[in-house]
């Protein structure tokens, strides 16, 4: 039977349509792969510039030892893995950087990945394979077409497990290309900094073990690769090597101390730097004395971080270098010479020189939060000011607040740069035992302070007289307040109502789109957050009322902004956009469409080979982007949902995938706007109807549990759609009750069961509870009651899959939310007042089937 028999309303033009599908709108296969790689983890990335590297006169012995191994011909190399280990502060990353640069000059470099625990884009294993594959395509050009073919034939490859990605993107392509003359060196620095997306949920040791397992797999094949792994000598990493005998036998484990000149390198560095300082300050050539140098070498205990921190502290433009060195030398050295204690003593000595200890503690606490918030998911994008400058402006810190901290805190660069010179200082500050009086204040207090500061800045109006830092501070505020709002425990806030009032007072202006982006595109979820910590409905009545008013206010701001954007479009484009939306939701021709033109097509550009989605002969992505619909369109979301996966299922999945394409293209808030007649009707944009919402919700729930579905984002959007259905809510009952049994979802892979149980265990507070509360805030008591009843039945049926303790908590919470629903049904504005839950009868057939 022909592949597209009985299909309608689409065509395929240009190129050849084989048994694979489009990867992503407007991108070639390698560019698509690059999206899943961690660009900041490369040795030459902009984010790491300027990188740490060895002083020109030091580390000669260590570099010689490593580069000798790297240059060996394959037949002479006994070990294909070189593990360089050393404690914190020994200069491991600087060595890895220097090796990478020299291997690149020699034509030996294959790939690099510099893990960093404070950067969400490179503190986990999930981007390692894609990153290495991209780098290998650059260093081994013959590899590129084979990797591209994998992506074209299996567009879902980046949703597969890491071992599968490794096999398909690296192992199999390398087997197909001619062997290069020498091995390519793959450098993985900071393995101990690979801590996973959330160390509270993912054991960092397991995440690091996964990396070792992948290296074990790669070196087990006869591939032209050798690996330099650099890390601290953590016990679990050592155990990881021992647990993989094949990897252990292929590994040369080297203690950096054994191949270093140690004290000699530090002495060379110190003398060279003190000469530079002395010449710039017109100090006597006798300074510092040999005794002082030897004292510093002894204190350093082989730690380069100690030596570099001393130099930065002494080299201060506002103080006498001689006086500052005396301060360091006068501090007491721990008798056992523990390197960590020595470093802690140095840090404390520097901090104690500040005239105002409380101000210093305050500044450092703010910088820790700043670093965490701005390193996550690109929030520093486009911000030219440094994090220290932004903190000074946001919190109106005095000019001298950072004066004594320049040896520890970076004051130059932009917001993407870590404000601390070394990870050890951030670790020091986060340990109350080590940092003593400089340990950061309670996290809750800092969150409230930063949040209120953000709201104060956003309440002010932007003016042409604003400095660059002032404008950057407002942009940063618009991006980070949502995360702070999410982590704030409103039940512990003395006056939660005032916090909501401050949010309402914000004058977002054009920055509203920045906030919308970081809410995940759903302002509705923002407004339930103040309620999630409460368990007694009586004292929170006023809070709930204020939360509803906040939501109405934010919707009003959003509606005004989106109507303004849409009104700037010419009438032809407005009609085109409406036809696109209707066609995506229905797969049926729009009455106003030109004859034969209301079609979705896949087009392959003849020159670039890139695929793109077209509607009515126009490139959808280009059209939406050029219209600058920032409030409506996901800015960096590719149109991937339409043809991902196996093309043999193309026809069966067509309507469902079109709905998912629509969901991927547009923000949740824009969908809510289009679906609410009260909000969009007066402006002529109420073009999503009840039946379409129901179909879209069903498609989204079902797709989440297929092998293609990114389950968590799709479930989040699925539950968000439920809150928009405010009539005939029982239409979605079959979709919700299908969650009882995975058999209701087609093409279910083997691992879906495990994913499903994980969603059940974690999903109540993330999916069900917010949906119930948001429905109540929208005065949609009928849907809130339906969701609460289905949720109760679902967890009762699946209670054996969840721990007893978790089930007890969930049942108590469900009872609480059902009380809220019952109270809401008695309100005159509620949609219905059931004397007896009609849902019980509706669920009966499903329960009988289950038993």
UniProtKB/TrEMBL annotation:
InterPro entries listed in its UniProt record: NPHP3-like_N, P-loop_NTPase
Superkingdom assignment: Eukaryota
Family matches, as SUPFAM superfamilies: P-loop containing nucleoside triphosphate hydrolases (SSF52540)
Pfam family, one: NPHP3_N
Domain spans labelled Nephrocystin 3-like N-terminal: 75-232
UniProt keyword list: Repeat
Protein name as it appears in the record: Nephrocystin 3-like N-terminal domain-containing protein
Source organism per UniProt: Coprinopsis marcescibilis (Agaric fungus)
Organism classification: Eukaryota, Fungi, Dikarya, Basidiomycota, Agaricomycotina
């Amino acid at each position: 039977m022909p592949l597209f028999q009985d299909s309608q309303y689409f065509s395929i033009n240009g190129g050849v349509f084989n048994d694979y599908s489009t990867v992503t709108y407007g991108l070639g296969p390698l560019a698509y792969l690059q999206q899943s790689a961690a660009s900041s983890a490369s040795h030459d990335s902009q984010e790491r510039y300027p990188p740490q590297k060895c002083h020109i006169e030091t580390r000669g012995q260590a570099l010689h030892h490593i580069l000798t191994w790297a240059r060996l011909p394959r037949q002479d190399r006994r070990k294909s893995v070189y593990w360089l280990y050393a404690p914190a502060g020994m200069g491991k990353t600087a060595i890895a950087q220097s090796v990478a640069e020299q291997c690149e000059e020699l034509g030996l470099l294959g790939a690099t990945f510099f893990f960093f625990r404070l950067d969400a884009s490179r503190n986990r294993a999930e981007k390692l394979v894609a990153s290495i594959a991209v780098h290998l395509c650059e260093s081994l050009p013959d590899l590129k077409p084979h990797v591209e073919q994998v992506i074209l034939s299996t567009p879902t490859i980046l949703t597969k497990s890491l071992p599968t990605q490794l096999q398909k993107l690296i192992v199999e392509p390398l087997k197909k290309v001619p062997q290069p003359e020498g091995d390519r060196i793959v450098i993985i620095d900071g393995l101990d900094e690979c801590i996973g997306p959330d160390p509270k949920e993912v054991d960092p040791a397991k995440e690091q073990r996964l990396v070792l397992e992948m290296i074990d797999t790669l070196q087990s094949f006869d591939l032209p690769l050798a690996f330099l792994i650099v890390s601290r000598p953590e016990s679990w990493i050592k155990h990881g090597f021992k647990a993989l005998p094949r990897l252990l036998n292929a590994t040369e484990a080297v203690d950096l101390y054994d191949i270093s000149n140690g004290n000699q390198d530090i002495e060379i560095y110190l003398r060279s730097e003190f000469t530079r300082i002395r010449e710039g300050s017109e100090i006597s050539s006798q300074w510092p004395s040999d005794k002082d140098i030897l004292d510093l070498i002894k204190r350093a205990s082989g730690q380069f971080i100690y030596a570099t921190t001393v130099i930065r502290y002494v080299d201060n433009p506002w103080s006498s270098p001689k006086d500052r060195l005396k301060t360091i030398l006068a501090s007491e050295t721990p008798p056992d010479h523990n390197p960590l204690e020595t470093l802690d003593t140095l840090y404390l000595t520097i901090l104690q020189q500040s005239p105002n200890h409380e101000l210093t503690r305050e500044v450092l606490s703010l910088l820790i939060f700043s670093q965490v918030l701005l390193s996550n998911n690109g929030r520093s994008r486009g911000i030219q000011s440094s994090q220290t400058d932004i903190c000074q402006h946001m919190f109106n810190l005095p000019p001298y607040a950072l004066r004594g901290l320049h040896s520890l805190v970076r004051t130059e660069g932009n917001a993407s740069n870590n404000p601390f010179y070394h990870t050890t200082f951030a670790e020091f500050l986060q340990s109350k035992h080590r940092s003593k009086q400089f340990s950061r204040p309670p996290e809750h207090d800092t969150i409230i302070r930063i949040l209120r500061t953000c709201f104060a800045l956003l309440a002010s109006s932007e003016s042409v007289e604003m400095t660059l830092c002032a404008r950057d501070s407002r942009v940063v505020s618009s991006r980070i307040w949502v995360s702070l709002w999410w982590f704030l425990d409103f039940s512990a806030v003395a006056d939660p109502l005032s916090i909501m009032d401050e949010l309402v007072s914000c004058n977002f202006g054009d920055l509203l789109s920045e906030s919308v982006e970081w809410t995940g595109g759903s302002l509705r979820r923002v407004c339930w957050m103040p309620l999630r910590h409460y368990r007694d409905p009586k004292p929170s009545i006023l809070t709930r009322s204020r939360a509803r008013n906040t939501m109405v206010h934010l919707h009003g701001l959003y509606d005004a902004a989106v109507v303004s954007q849409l009104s700037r479009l010419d009438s032809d484009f407005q009609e085109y956009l409406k036809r696109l939306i209707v066609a995506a939701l229905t797969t049926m021709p729009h009455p106003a469409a030109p004859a034969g033109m209301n079609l979705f097509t896949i087009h392959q550009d003849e020159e670039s080979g890139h695929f793109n989605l077209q509607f009515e002969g126009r490139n959808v992505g280009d059209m939406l982007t050029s219209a600058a619909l920032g409030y409506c369109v996901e800015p960096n979301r590719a149109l991937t949902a339409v043809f991902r996966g196996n093309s043999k299922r193309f026809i069966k999945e067509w309507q469902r995938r079109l709905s998912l394409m629509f969901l991927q293209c547009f923000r949740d808030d824009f969908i809510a706007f289009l679906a609410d007649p009260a909000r969009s009707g007066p402006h002529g944009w109420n073009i999503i109807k009840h039946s379409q919402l129901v179909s879209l919700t069903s498609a989204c729930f079902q797709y989440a549990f297929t092998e293609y579905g990114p389950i968590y984002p799709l479930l989040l959007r699925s539950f968000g759609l439920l809150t928009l259905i405010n009539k005939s809510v029982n239409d979605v009952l079959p979709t919700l009750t299908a969650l009882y049994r995975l058999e209701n979802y087609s093409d279910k892979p083997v691992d879906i069961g495990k994913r499903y149980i994980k969603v059940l265990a974690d999903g109540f507070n993330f999916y069900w509870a917010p949906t119930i509360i948001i429905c109540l805030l929208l005065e949609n008591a009928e849907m809130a009651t339906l969701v609460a009843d289905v949720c109760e039945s679902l967890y009762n049926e699946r209670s054996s899959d969840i721990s007893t303790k978790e089930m007890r908590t969930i049942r108590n919470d469900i009872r609480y939310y059902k009380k809220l629903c019952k109270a809401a049904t008695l309100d005159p504005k509620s949609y219905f007042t059931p004397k007896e839950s009609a849902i019980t009868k509706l669920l009966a057939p499903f329960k009988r089937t289950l038993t």
